[in-house]
Amino acid sequence: MTRTPDVLLENQTWTDVENALEDGTRTAVVAVGSVEQHGPHLPLIMDTLAGDELSRRIAERLGDAFAAPTIRPGCSGHHMDFPGTITIPPETLMELIRSYCRSLDAHGFEHLVLVPTHGGNFAPVNTVAPEIARELDANVIALAELDTLMELMNEGLRAAGVEYEEPVIHAGAAETAMVMAVDEGLVRTDRLEVGREGDISVSRLLSDGFRAITENGVLGDPREATLEAGEEIFSKLADAYAERIEAERDAV
Length: 252
Hints:
alpha/beta, globular, four-stranded parallel sheet
């Protein structure tokens, strides 16, 4: 049986990494997740689970990359009304990202890819990425366009036959489907509850917190989720991001 090469950096020994670098593996994919509420039915670690899975799939598609351990927690202050959420200031997150990138650059990785999977991390990633690029020799690629992420997630729902659109995504059909694709057992199916649907003021969500928008922490209807939709979402994201990374690497 043919085995897919292990692309997870955390599973390698230092000699494995040294040999891979010598053989031309010079790209590291760093997802930036969170530890925050995702309704009564999804685990707090949802965004980090998504980062783990997405970075792995991207690295496999590239064929010459490692998926670094996902950074967690993130900037989740707007979820702090819900117990279990852990948040850090943007400055702390940016310094952590700098440290990751400095370490990987020191070892010889030439392309550092930042992939936020939590909405609150996009601004810090977009702020720090050009600063890191000026400091290091490495090529820093920030895949941090929130509208693009959510558009691809909605495309994944449609591709799986789920006729349900989420204008702002959090703990609804798309993210529930993604957790199903990673580990169905993590979804509390007896607690699936519809949340706030329709158009949502993102500025109010960030300034007043999620509790001001949705009592149960959910946007949309997680009952629309399917495992097939989760697979489609991850596939569309990984394909689009790998293509973007290849283009960015070729342009250097």
